[in-house]
Write a structure and sequence with these properties.
The chain has 18 helices and 16 strands. By secondary structure, the protein is an alpha/beta fold. Bound molecules: 5'-O-[(L-methionyl)-sulphamoyl]adenosine (MSP). 5'-O-[(L-methionyl)-sulphamoyl]adenosine (MSP) binds next to strand 1, helix 2, helix 8 and strand 12.
Length: 527
Protein backbone atom coordinates (compact mmCIF):
# COMPACT_ATOMS: atom_id res chain seq x y z
CA UNK A 1 0.00 0.00 0.00
CA UNK A 2 2.95 2.24 0.58
CA UNK A 3 3.67 2.07 -3.13
CA UNK A 4 1.44 5.11 -3.60
CA UNK A 5 3.40 7.11 -1.10
CA UNK A 6 6.76 6.45 -2.68
CA UNK A 7 6.44 9.15 -5.28
CA UNK A 8 3.45 10.94 -3.85
CA UNK A 9 1.99 11.08 -7.37
CA UNK A 10 0.64 7.57 -7.75
CA UNK A 11 3.43 6.50 -10.11
CA UNK A 12 3.29 2.74 -10.62
CA UNK A 13 6.23 0.40 -10.27
CA UNK A 14 7.03 -2.39 -12.71
CA UNK A 15 6.90 -5.56 -10.63
CA UNK A 16 7.25 -9.11 -11.84
CA UNK A 17 3.81 -10.05 -10.64
CA UNK A 18 1.16 -9.82 -13.34
CA UNK A 19 -2.43 -9.71 -12.14
CA UNK A 20 -4.89 -10.02 -15.03
CA UNK A 21 -8.62 -9.42 -14.65
CA UNK A 22 -11.78 -9.61 -16.72
CA UNK A 23 -14.88 -7.59 -15.88
CA UNK A 24 -17.18 -9.54 -13.63
CA UNK A 25 -20.25 -10.57 -15.60
CA UNK A 26 -23.84 -9.76 -14.75
CA UNK A 27 -25.79 -12.88 -14.01
CA UNK A 28 -28.99 -11.74 -15.69
CA UNK A 29 -27.87 -13.36 -18.90
CA UNK A 30 -26.12 -16.45 -20.30
CA UNK A 31 -22.49 -16.15 -21.36
CA UNK A 32 -22.51 -15.17 -25.05
CA UNK A 33 -19.85 -14.67 -27.69
CA UNK A 34 -19.35 -11.02 -26.60
CA UNK A 35 -18.53 -11.91 -23.01
CA UNK A 36 -16.56 -14.94 -24.24
CA UNK A 37 -14.48 -12.59 -26.39
CA UNK A 38 -13.49 -10.51 -23.34
CA UNK A 39 -12.66 -13.63 -21.35
CA UNK A 40 -10.64 -15.31 -24.11
CA UNK A 41 -8.58 -12.16 -24.69
CA UNK A 42 -7.83 -11.83 -20.96
CA UNK A 43 -6.94 -15.52 -20.87
CA UNK A 44 -4.51 -15.10 -23.75
CA UNK A 45 -2.78 -12.22 -21.91
CA UNK A 46 -2.53 -14.36 -18.76
CA UNK A 47 -1.13 -17.30 -20.73
CA UNK A 48 1.42 -15.16 -22.57
CA UNK A 49 2.65 -13.68 -19.32
CA UNK A 50 2.99 -17.11 -17.70
CA UNK A 51 5.00 -18.24 -20.70
CA UNK A 52 7.38 -15.30 -20.44
CA UNK A 53 7.93 -16.16 -16.79
CA UNK A 54 5.81 -13.63 -14.94
CA UNK A 55 4.06 -14.60 -11.75
CA UNK A 56 0.49 -14.49 -13.03
CA UNK A 57 -2.72 -14.31 -11.08
CA UNK A 58 -5.77 -14.38 -13.34
CA UNK A 59 -9.21 -13.48 -12.07
CA UNK A 60 -12.71 -13.59 -13.50
CA UNK A 61 -16.08 -13.80 -11.83
CA UNK A 62 -19.68 -12.66 -11.60
CA UNK A 63 -21.40 -9.42 -10.59
CA UNK A 64 -24.42 -10.51 -8.56
CA UNK A 65 -25.93 -7.53 -6.75
CA UNK A 66 -28.10 -4.59 -7.80
CA UNK A 67 -31.53 -3.85 -9.16
CA UNK A 68 -31.01 -5.58 -12.50
CA UNK A 69 -30.19 -8.90 -10.87
CA UNK A 70 -32.92 -8.52 -8.21
CA UNK A 71 -35.44 -7.98 -11.01
CA UNK A 72 -34.10 -10.90 -13.06
CA UNK A 73 -34.66 -13.17 -10.05
CA UNK A 74 -38.10 -11.71 -9.36
CA UNK A 75 -39.21 -12.25 -12.97
CA UNK A 76 -38.42 -15.93 -12.53
CA UNK A 77 -40.09 -16.16 -9.14
CA UNK A 78 -36.77 -17.00 -7.49
CA UNK A 79 -34.94 -15.53 -4.52
CA UNK A 80 -31.95 -13.45 -5.64
CA UNK A 81 -29.45 -15.77 -3.91
CA UNK A 82 -30.98 -18.88 -5.40
CA UNK A 83 -30.94 -17.26 -8.84
CA UNK A 84 -27.35 -16.02 -8.70
CA UNK A 85 -26.13 -19.40 -7.46
CA UNK A 86 -27.51 -21.00 -10.60
CA UNK A 87 -26.58 -18.27 -13.06
CA UNK A 88 -22.99 -17.85 -11.89
CA UNK A 89 -22.44 -21.56 -12.52
CA UNK A 90 -23.20 -21.00 -16.23
CA UNK A 91 -20.15 -18.78 -16.39
CA UNK A 92 -17.96 -21.22 -14.49
CA UNK A 93 -19.01 -23.98 -16.92
CA UNK A 94 -18.68 -21.91 -20.10
CA UNK A 95 -15.24 -20.60 -19.18
CA UNK A 96 -14.03 -24.04 -18.26
CA UNK A 97 -15.14 -25.31 -21.66
CA UNK A 98 -13.36 -22.43 -23.42
CA UNK A 99 -10.10 -23.35 -21.62
CA UNK A 100 -10.02 -20.21 -19.50
CA UNK A 101 -7.09 -20.59 -17.10
CA UNK A 102 -8.34 -18.36 -14.28
CA UNK A 103 -6.71 -18.84 -10.87
CA UNK A 104 -9.78 -17.61 -9.02
CA UNK A 105 -13.45 -16.95 -9.70
CA UNK A 106 -14.96 -14.22 -7.58
CA UNK A 107 -18.67 -13.85 -6.81
CA UNK A 108 -19.74 -10.57 -5.29
CA UNK A 109 -22.11 -12.40 -2.93
CA UNK A 110 -19.19 -14.10 -1.18
CA UNK A 111 -18.36 -13.21 2.43
CA UNK A 112 -14.77 -12.19 1.54
CA UNK A 113 -16.21 -9.55 -0.79
CA UNK A 114 -18.58 -8.12 1.82
CA UNK A 115 -15.61 -7.72 4.16
CA UNK A 116 -13.51 -6.00 1.50
CA UNK A 117 -16.26 -3.68 0.26
CA UNK A 118 -17.16 -2.56 3.76
CA UNK A 119 -13.55 -1.91 4.62
CA UNK A 120 -12.92 -0.07 1.34
CA UNK A 121 -16.04 2.08 1.80
CA UNK A 122 -15.17 2.82 5.39
CA UNK A 123 -11.67 3.91 4.36
CA UNK A 124 -13.08 6.33 1.79
CA UNK A 125 -15.64 7.59 4.30
CA UNK A 126 -12.99 8.05 7.00
CA UNK A 127 -10.78 9.87 4.51
CA UNK A 128 -13.60 12.37 4.00
CA UNK A 129 -14.60 11.60 0.41
CA UNK A 130 -18.15 10.40 1.07
CA UNK A 131 -21.03 12.71 2.08
CA UNK A 132 -24.83 12.53 2.27
CA UNK A 133 -27.06 14.28 -0.27
CA UNK A 134 -30.14 14.00 -2.48
CA UNK A 135 -30.05 12.75 -6.04
CA UNK A 136 -32.55 12.79 -8.84
CA UNK A 137 -31.79 11.59 -12.33
CA UNK A 138 -32.42 9.35 -15.34
CA UNK A 139 -31.41 5.80 -14.51
CA UNK A 140 -30.89 2.92 -16.93
CA UNK A 141 -31.40 -0.36 -15.07
CA UNK A 142 -29.58 -2.58 -17.63
CA UNK A 143 -26.54 -0.25 -17.38
CA UNK A 144 -27.05 0.28 -13.64
CA UNK A 145 -26.05 3.90 -14.27
CA UNK A 146 -27.45 7.43 -14.33
CA UNK A 147 -27.42 9.44 -17.56
CA UNK A 148 -27.37 13.16 -18.25
CA UNK A 149 -30.46 14.20 -20.20
CA UNK A 150 -28.22 15.45 -23.02
CA UNK A 151 -26.81 11.96 -23.55
CA UNK A 152 -30.19 10.26 -23.98
CA UNK A 153 -31.72 9.22 -27.28
CA UNK A 154 -35.11 10.62 -28.32
CA UNK A 155 -37.90 9.33 -26.08
CA UNK A 156 -35.56 9.42 -23.06
CA UNK A 157 -33.87 6.22 -24.09
CA UNK A 158 -30.52 4.84 -23.00
CA UNK A 159 -27.87 5.31 -25.72
CA UNK A 160 -26.57 1.77 -25.18
CA UNK A 161 -29.75 -0.24 -24.63
CA UNK A 162 -32.06 1.98 -26.71
CA UNK A 163 -34.86 1.58 -24.17
CA UNK A 164 -36.46 4.12 -21.84
CA UNK A 165 -34.59 5.15 -18.70
CA UNK A 166 -36.34 5.69 -15.35
CA UNK A 167 -36.53 8.90 -13.30
CA UNK A 168 -35.23 8.09 -9.82
CA UNK A 169 -35.08 10.34 -6.75
CA UNK A 170 -33.05 9.12 -3.78
CA UNK A 171 -31.33 10.31 -0.64
CA UNK A 172 -27.89 8.80 -0.92
CA UNK A 173 -24.29 8.94 0.03
CA UNK A 174 -22.08 10.54 -2.58
CA UNK A 175 -18.50 9.93 -3.57
CA UNK A 176 -16.66 13.21 -4.18
CA UNK A 177 -15.32 12.21 -7.61
CA UNK A 178 -15.07 15.87 -8.66
CA UNK A 179 -12.26 16.38 -6.15
CA UNK A 180 -10.05 13.92 -8.06
CA UNK A 181 -9.83 15.75 -11.38
CA UNK A 182 -6.30 17.06 -10.91
CA UNK A 183 -4.98 13.90 -9.34
CA UNK A 184 -6.39 11.82 -12.18
CA UNK A 185 -4.92 14.11 -14.81
CA UNK A 186 -1.47 13.98 -13.26
CA UNK A 187 -1.73 10.20 -12.93
CA UNK A 188 -2.43 10.00 -16.68
CA UNK A 189 0.43 12.33 -17.41
CA UNK A 190 2.86 10.29 -15.31
CA UNK A 191 1.76 6.96 -16.80
CA UNK A 192 1.41 7.27 -20.56
CA UNK A 193 0.62 3.56 -21.10
CA UNK A 194 -1.95 3.29 -18.34
CA UNK A 195 -4.88 3.00 -20.75
CA UNK A 196 -4.42 1.12 -24.03
CA UNK A 197 -4.94 1.43 -26.91
CA UNK A 198 -4.13 5.14 -27.23
CA UNK A 199 -7.56 5.94 -28.69
CA UNK A 200 -9.15 4.67 -25.47
CA UNK A 201 -6.72 6.68 -23.36
CA UNK A 202 -7.81 9.82 -25.18
CA UNK A 203 -11.44 8.89 -24.62
CA UNK A 204 -10.81 8.47 -20.88
CA UNK A 205 -9.00 11.80 -20.71
CA UNK A 206 -11.98 13.30 -22.50
CA UNK A 207 -14.30 12.10 -19.71
CA UNK A 208 -12.10 13.81 -17.13
CA UNK A 209 -11.72 17.01 -19.11
CA UNK A 210 -15.49 17.29 -19.58
CA UNK A 211 -15.69 17.79 -15.80
CA UNK A 212 -16.34 15.15 -13.17
CA UNK A 213 -19.53 15.04 -11.13
CA UNK A 214 -19.83 13.42 -7.74
CA UNK A 215 -21.53 10.04 -7.86
CA UNK A 216 -24.22 8.53 -5.74
CA UNK A 217 -22.77 5.35 -4.28
CA UNK A 218 -25.52 3.92 -2.08
CA UNK A 219 -29.16 2.86 -2.58
CA UNK A 220 -32.16 2.63 -0.29
CA UNK A 221 -34.92 1.58 -2.71
CA UNK A 222 -33.95 -2.11 -2.53
CA UNK A 223 -31.75 -4.24 -0.32
CA UNK A 224 -30.03 -6.69 -2.71
CA UNK A 225 -26.53 -5.44 -2.00
CA UNK A 226 -23.85 -5.01 0.63
CA UNK A 227 -24.91 -2.92 3.65
CA UNK A 228 -23.09 0.38 4.07
CA UNK A 229 -20.96 -0.13 7.19
CA UNK A 230 -21.92 3.13 8.96
CA UNK A 231 -25.60 3.22 7.88
CA UNK A 232 -27.42 -0.08 7.43
CA UNK A 233 -30.45 1.57 5.75
CA UNK A 234 -28.29 1.81 2.63
CA UNK A 235 -26.72 -0.78 0.37
CA UNK A 236 -23.63 -0.07 -1.72
CA UNK A 237 -24.33 0.91 -5.35
CA UNK A 238 -23.65 -2.08 -7.57
CA UNK A 239 -20.85 -0.51 -9.64
CA UNK A 240 -19.02 0.61 -6.50
CA UNK A 241 -19.44 -2.88 -5.08
CA UNK A 242 -18.36 -4.53 -8.36
CA UNK A 243 -15.17 -2.55 -8.95
CA UNK A 244 -13.87 -3.46 -5.51
CA UNK A 245 -13.87 -7.16 -6.54
CA UNK A 246 -10.42 -6.61 -8.03
CA UNK A 247 -9.07 -5.73 -4.58
CA UNK A 248 -11.07 -8.41 -2.74
CA UNK A 249 -9.69 -11.28 -4.78
CA UNK A 250 -6.08 -10.50 -3.89
CA UNK A 251 -6.75 -10.15 -0.19
CA UNK A 252 -7.83 -6.57 0.46
CA UNK A 253 -9.34 -6.61 3.94
CA UNK A 254 -8.53 -10.27 4.54
CA UNK A 255 -4.92 -11.03 3.53
CA UNK A 256 -2.74 -7.96 3.55
CA UNK A 257 0.47 -9.82 2.59
CA UNK A 258 -1.02 -11.14 -0.65
CA UNK A 259 -2.54 -7.79 -1.38
CA UNK A 260 0.78 -6.00 -0.88
CA UNK A 261 2.42 -8.51 -3.20
CA UNK A 262 -0.02 -8.31 -6.11
CA UNK A 263 -1.31 -4.77 -5.89
CA UNK A 264 -1.08 -2.54 -7.94
CA UNK A 265 0.34 -4.92 -10.60
CA UNK A 266 -3.14 -5.27 -11.98
CA UNK A 267 -4.07 -5.27 -15.66
CA UNK A 268 -7.77 -4.80 -16.26
CA UNK A 269 -9.28 -5.85 -19.56
CA UNK A 270 -12.67 -4.20 -20.15
CA UNK A 271 -15.10 -3.46 -22.95
CA UNK A 272 -15.30 0.10 -24.24
CA UNK A 273 -18.75 0.51 -22.66
CA UNK A 274 -17.29 0.27 -19.17
CA UNK A 275 -14.15 2.32 -19.74
CA UNK A 276 -15.41 5.30 -17.72
CA UNK A 277 -15.95 3.14 -14.62
CA UNK A 278 -12.49 1.62 -14.85
CA UNK A 279 -10.40 4.51 -16.12
CA UNK A 280 -12.00 7.31 -14.08
CA UNK A 281 -14.06 6.06 -11.15
CA UNK A 282 -11.91 3.12 -10.11
CA UNK A 283 -8.54 4.92 -9.97
CA UNK A 284 -10.20 7.74 -8.04
CA UNK A 285 -11.76 5.23 -5.64
CA UNK A 286 -8.34 3.65 -5.07
CA UNK A 287 -6.78 7.04 -4.42
CA UNK A 288 -9.60 7.91 -2.01
CA UNK A 289 -9.17 4.63 -0.13
CA UNK A 290 -5.40 5.19 0.11
CA UNK A 291 -4.22 2.45 -2.23
CA UNK A 292 -2.41 2.78 -5.56
CA UNK A 293 -4.56 2.92 -8.69
CA UNK A 294 -4.29 0.06 -11.18
CA UNK A 295 -1.23 -0.38 -13.36
CA UNK A 296 -3.09 -0.74 -16.63
CA UNK A 297 -6.51 -0.74 -18.22
CA UNK A 298 -6.88 -2.24 -21.68
CA UNK A 299 -10.18 -1.52 -23.40
CA UNK A 300 -11.52 -3.52 -26.31
CA UNK A 301 -14.33 -2.80 -28.74
CA UNK A 302 -17.53 -4.76 -29.20
CA UNK A 303 -18.14 -7.92 -31.11
CA UNK A 304 -21.03 -7.09 -33.39
CA UNK A 305 -23.46 -9.33 -35.21
CA UNK A 306 -24.80 -7.77 -38.39
CA UNK A 307 -23.41 -4.43 -37.21
CA UNK A 308 -25.17 -4.56 -33.79
CA UNK A 309 -23.91 -5.28 -30.29
CA UNK A 310 -24.79 -8.74 -29.09
CA UNK A 311 -27.26 -8.47 -26.27
CA UNK A 312 -30.16 -10.18 -24.62
CA UNK A 313 -32.59 -7.44 -25.58
CA UNK A 314 -31.65 -7.71 -29.27
CA UNK A 315 -31.92 -11.51 -29.15
CA UNK A 316 -28.89 -11.77 -31.41
CA UNK A 317 -26.62 -13.66 -29.09
CA UNK A 318 -24.33 -16.39 -30.29
CA UNK A 319 -23.65 -19.13 -27.76
CA UNK A 320 -19.87 -19.61 -27.69
CA UNK A 321 -19.92 -23.20 -26.47
CA UNK A 322 -22.15 -24.23 -29.40
CA UNK A 323 -19.75 -22.58 -31.82
CA UNK A 324 -16.83 -24.31 -30.11
CA UNK A 325 -18.61 -27.68 -30.49
CA UNK A 326 -18.93 -26.95 -34.17
CA UNK A 327 -15.48 -25.70 -35.18
CA UNK A 328 -13.28 -26.48 -32.19
CA UNK A 329 -12.61 -24.46 -29.07
CA UNK A 330 -9.16 -23.36 -30.07
CA UNK A 331 -10.12 -22.46 -33.63
CA UNK A 332 -12.74 -20.16 -32.13
CA UNK A 333 -10.23 -18.68 -29.70
CA UNK A 334 -7.76 -18.14 -32.52
CA UNK A 335 -10.35 -16.40 -34.67
CA UNK A 336 -11.43 -14.05 -31.86
CA UNK A 337 -7.85 -13.08 -31.13
CA UNK A 338 -6.66 -12.90 -34.73
CA UNK A 339 -9.56 -11.20 -36.46
CA UNK A 340 -10.64 -8.53 -34.00
CA UNK A 341 -8.24 -5.61 -33.76
CA UNK A 342 -8.16 -5.04 -30.02
CA UNK A 343 -9.73 -1.67 -29.24
CA UNK A 344 -11.94 -1.66 -32.35
CA UNK A 345 -15.31 -3.25 -32.95
CA UNK A 346 -15.32 -6.51 -34.90
CA UNK A 347 -18.23 -7.96 -36.86
CA UNK A 348 -18.65 -11.67 -36.24
CA UNK A 349 -19.70 -13.90 -39.12
CA UNK A 350 -19.64 -17.65 -39.39
CA UNK A 351 -18.14 -17.29 -42.87
CA UNK A 352 -15.29 -15.21 -41.46
CA UNK A 353 -14.59 -17.84 -38.80
CA UNK A 354 -14.47 -20.67 -41.34
CA UNK A 355 -12.39 -18.64 -43.81
CA UNK A 356 -9.77 -17.89 -41.14
CA UNK A 357 -9.83 -21.50 -39.98
CA UNK A 358 -9.24 -22.82 -43.47
CA UNK A 359 -6.57 -20.29 -44.39
CA UNK A 360 -4.42 -20.19 -41.25
CA UNK A 361 -5.13 -23.44 -39.47
CA UNK A 362 -6.08 -26.06 -42.08
CA UNK A 363 -3.99 -24.84 -45.02
CA UNK A 364 -1.00 -23.18 -43.44
CA UNK A 365 -0.20 -24.57 -40.01
CA UNK A 366 -2.01 -27.90 -40.37
CA UNK A 367 -0.48 -28.53 -43.74
CA UNK A 368 3.02 -27.67 -42.56
CA UNK A 369 2.77 -30.08 -39.64
CA UNK A 370 1.33 -32.86 -41.77
CA UNK A 371 3.88 -32.48 -44.54
CA UNK A 372 6.84 -32.34 -42.22
CA UNK A 373 5.73 -35.38 -40.23
CA UNK A 374 5.18 -37.33 -43.47
CA UNK A 375 8.53 -36.46 -45.01
CA UNK A 376 10.49 -36.99 -41.76
CA UNK A 377 8.78 -40.40 -41.71
CA UNK A 378 9.78 -41.28 -45.25
CA UNK A 379 13.23 -39.67 -45.51
CA UNK A 380 14.56 -39.73 -41.93
CA UNK A 381 12.94 -42.88 -40.51
CA UNK A 382 10.73 -40.70 -38.28
CA UNK A 383 13.69 -39.18 -36.39
CA UNK A 384 13.78 -35.38 -36.28
CA UNK A 385 17.02 -33.90 -37.67
CA UNK A 386 18.79 -30.74 -36.44
CA UNK A 387 17.98 -27.37 -38.01
CA UNK A 388 20.55 -25.29 -39.90
CA UNK A 389 22.76 -23.10 -37.77
CA UNK A 390 21.38 -19.52 -37.60
CA UNK A 391 24.00 -18.24 -40.06
CA UNK A 392 23.10 -20.90 -42.61
CA UNK A 393 19.40 -20.15 -43.07
CA UNK A 394 17.47 -16.93 -43.69
CA UNK A 395 14.64 -18.43 -41.64
CA UNK A 396 16.61 -17.82 -38.45
CA UNK A 397 16.59 -14.07 -39.06
CA UNK A 398 12.87 -14.15 -39.83
CA UNK A 399 12.30 -16.02 -36.57
CA UNK A 400 14.21 -13.39 -34.60
CA UNK A 401 12.12 -10.60 -36.15
CA UNK A 402 8.90 -12.50 -35.56
CA UNK A 403 9.69 -13.22 -31.91
CA UNK A 404 10.55 -9.60 -31.36
CA UNK A 405 7.32 -8.43 -32.99
CA UNK A 406 5.28 -10.94 -30.98
CA UNK A 407 6.76 -9.64 -27.72
CA UNK A 408 6.08 -6.05 -28.68
CA UNK A 409 2.56 -6.85 -29.85
CA UNK A 410 1.56 -8.38 -26.49
CA UNK A 411 3.10 -5.39 -24.71
CA UNK A 412 1.00 -2.95 -26.70
CA UNK A 413 -2.11 -5.11 -26.21
CA UNK A 414 -2.36 -6.23 -29.83
CA UNK A 415 -2.89 -10.02 -29.90
CA UNK A 416 -3.99 -9.79 -33.55
CA UNK A 417 -0.49 -8.54 -34.46
CA UNK A 418 1.21 -11.22 -32.35
CA UNK A 419 -0.64 -13.94 -34.24
CA UNK A 420 -0.19 -12.31 -37.61
CA UNK A 421 3.56 -12.15 -37.03
CA UNK A 422 3.62 -15.79 -35.90
CA UNK A 423 1.90 -16.87 -39.10
CA UNK A 424 4.50 -14.99 -41.11
CA UNK A 425 6.93 -17.63 -39.92
CA UNK A 426 4.53 -20.39 -40.98
CA UNK A 427 4.20 -18.80 -44.45
CA UNK A 428 7.95 -18.41 -44.86
CA UNK A 429 8.51 -22.02 -43.89
CA UNK A 430 5.88 -23.29 -46.29
CA UNK A 431 7.46 -21.21 -49.04
CA UNK A 432 10.91 -22.62 -48.20
CA UNK A 433 9.51 -26.14 -48.41
CA UNK A 434 7.87 -25.43 -51.76
CA UNK A 435 11.22 -24.20 -52.97
CA UNK A 436 13.33 -27.07 -51.66
CA UNK A 437 10.76 -29.82 -52.26
CA UNK A 438 12.31 -32.20 -49.69
CA UNK A 439 9.76 -34.88 -50.66
CA UNK A 440 11.60 -35.16 -54.00
CA UNK A 441 15.09 -35.25 -52.47
CA UNK A 442 17.21 -38.23 -51.61
CA UNK A 443 17.68 -39.01 -47.92
CA UNK A 444 20.80 -37.37 -46.53
CA UNK A 445 22.18 -34.17 -44.95
CA UNK A 446 20.49 -31.76 -47.41
CA UNK A 447 16.98 -33.03 -46.79
CA UNK A 448 17.69 -33.31 -43.08
CA UNK A 449 18.63 -29.65 -42.75
CA UNK A 450 15.45 -28.49 -44.52
CA UNK A 451 13.28 -30.68 -42.32
CA UNK A 452 15.22 -29.66 -39.23
CA UNK A 453 14.38 -26.04 -40.03
CA UNK A 454 10.72 -26.94 -40.41
CA UNK A 455 10.68 -28.75 -37.06
CA UNK A 456 12.35 -25.74 -35.46
CA UNK A 457 9.71 -23.43 -36.96
CA UNK A 458 6.95 -25.70 -35.66
CA UNK A 459 8.55 -25.62 -32.20
CA UNK A 460 8.68 -21.82 -32.21
CA UNK A 461 5.18 -21.47 -33.62
CA UNK A 462 3.79 -23.83 -30.97
CA UNK A 463 5.23 -21.61 -28.21
CA UNK A 464 4.09 -18.37 -29.85
CA UNK A 465 0.59 -19.65 -30.65
CA UNK A 466 0.04 -21.26 -27.24
CA UNK A 467 -1.78 -18.28 -25.66
CA UNK A 468 -4.47 -18.72 -28.33
CA UNK A 469 -4.35 -22.49 -28.78
CA UNK A 470 -2.79 -24.16 -25.75
CA UNK A 471 -3.87 -27.74 -26.47
CA UNK A 472 -3.21 -27.68 -30.21
CA UNK A 473 0.22 -26.19 -29.51
CA UNK A 474 0.88 -29.00 -27.04
CA UNK A 475 -0.15 -31.55 -29.62
CA UNK A 476 2.31 -30.02 -32.09
CA UNK A 477 5.03 -30.34 -29.46
CA UNK A 478 4.08 -33.97 -28.91
CA UNK A 479 4.15 -34.78 -32.62
CA UNK A 480 7.57 -33.20 -33.18
CA UNK A 481 8.86 -35.08 -30.16
CA UNK A 482 9.59 -32.12 -27.88
CA UNK A 483 9.14 -32.83 -24.19
CA UNK A 484 6.90 -30.84 -21.87
CA UNK A 485 4.39 -28.23 -22.93
CA UNK A 486 5.07 -25.24 -25.20
CA UNK A 487 3.41 -23.01 -22.61
CA UNK A 488 5.53 -24.19 -19.68
CA UNK A 489 6.19 -21.23 -17.35
CA UNK A 490 9.18 -19.24 -18.54
CA UNK A 491 9.46 -21.04 -21.91
CA UNK A 492 9.33 -17.68 -23.71
CA UNK A 493 11.35 -15.73 -21.15
CA UNK A 494 13.91 -13.35 -22.58
CA UNK A 495 16.66 -14.69 -20.34
CA UNK A 496 17.07 -18.48 -20.42
CA UNK A 497 13.92 -18.92 -22.48
CA UNK A 498 13.67 -20.96 -25.66
CA UNK A 499 12.58 -18.51 -28.30
CA UNK A 500 16.01 -18.34 -29.91
CA UNK A 501 16.73 -20.28 -33.13
CA UNK A 502 18.10 -23.78 -32.75
CA UNK A 503 16.60 -25.30 -29.61
CA UNK A 504 14.90 -28.14 -31.47
CA UNK A 505 16.26 -31.41 -30.12
CA UNK A 506 17.66 -33.50 -32.96
CA UNK A 507 16.93 -37.16 -32.45
CA UNK A 508 13.32 -36.61 -31.32
CA UNK A 509 10.79 -39.08 -32.54
CA UNK A 510 8.37 -37.38 -34.95
CA UNK A 511 4.88 -38.83 -35.22
CA UNK A 512 2.22 -38.30 -37.84
CA UNK A 513 -1.36 -38.21 -36.64
CA UNK A 514 -4.77 -37.26 -37.94
CA UNK A 515 -4.88 -33.71 -39.39
CA UNK A 516 -5.16 -31.28 -36.46
CA UNK A 517 -7.37 -28.95 -38.48
CA UNK A 518 -9.36 -30.80 -41.13
CA UNK A 519 -10.52 -28.44 -43.87
CA UNK A 520 -14.05 -27.10 -43.38
CA UNK A 521 -16.81 -26.30 -45.78
CA UNK A 522 -18.73 -23.12 -45.06
CA UNK A 523 -21.94 -24.59 -43.58
CA UNK A 524 -22.14 -25.11 -39.83
CA UNK A 525 -22.21 -28.86 -39.18
CA UNK A 526 -25.74 -30.22 -39.02
CA UNK A 527 -27.23 -27.52 -41.26
N1 LIG B 1 -20.93 -6.22 -14.43
C1 LIG B 1 -20.38 -5.21 -15.26
C2 LIG B 1 -18.87 -5.17 -15.15
C3 LIG B 1 -18.35 -4.92 -13.78
S1 LIG B 1 -16.62 -4.98 -13.72
C4 LIG B 1 -16.21 -4.44 -12.23
C5 LIG B 1 -20.75 -5.48 -16.72
N2 LIG B 1 -21.11 -6.72 -16.99
S2 LIG B 1 -21.57 -7.25 -18.43
O1 LIG B 1 -21.82 -8.66 -18.25
O2 LIG B 1 -22.64 -6.46 -18.92
O3 LIG B 1 -20.39 -7.01 -19.40
C6 LIG B 1 -19.13 -7.47 -19.08
C7 LIG B 1 -18.16 -7.26 -20.20
O4 LIG B 1 -18.58 -7.96 -21.36
C8 LIG B 1 -18.00 -5.80 -20.62
O5 LIG B 1 -16.62 -5.55 -20.74
C9 LIG B 1 -18.63 -5.72 -21.97
O6 LIG B 1 -18.04 -4.80 -22.81
C10 LIG B 1 -18.38 -7.14 -22.46
N3 LIG B 1 -19.30 -7.45 -23.51
C11 LIG B 1 -20.64 -7.62 -23.44
N4 LIG B 1 -21.12 -7.75 -24.71
C12 LIG B 1 -20.10 -7.66 -25.58
C13 LIG B 1 -19.95 -7.71 -26.96
N5 LIG B 1 -20.98 -7.89 -27.76
N6 LIG B 1 -18.71 -7.58 -27.46
C14 LIG B 1 -17.61 -7.43 -26.68
N7 LIG B 1 -17.72 -7.36 -25.39
C15 LIG B 1 -18.94 -7.45 -24.82
O7 LIG B 1 -20.67 -4.59 -17.52
Amino acid sequence: MDKTKRSGRYATTVPEAFYQTTPIYYVNDQPHLGTAYTTVVADAFARWHRTVGDEVFFLTGTDEHGLKIARAAEERGRSPQDWVDEASSWFVDAWSKLEISNDDFIRTTEARHTTAVQQFMQAIYDNGYIYKGEWAGWYCVPCEAYYDEADLLPGNSCPIHERPVEWIVEENYFFALSRFTDRLLSWYEDNPGVVLPVSRRNEALGFINQGLKDISVTRTAFDWGIPVPWDSDHVVYVWYDALINYATAVGYGTDEATFAHLWPSVHHLVGKDILRFHAVWWPAMCMAAGIAPPQQIVAHGWLLVGGEKMSKSRANQIIPTELADDIGIEALRYHLLRDVTLGHDGDFTYEGLVARYNADLANNLGNLLQRVATVVGSKCAGVGPAPHSPEATPLAAVAVEVVDEVRRAWERAAPQDALEATWRLVHEMNAALEEAEPWKMESGPAVEAVLGDALEVLRLVAILASPAMPEMASEIFRRIGESGRPDAPGRAAIVDGQLGWGHYQAGNLVTKGEPLFPRRRIEPSGS
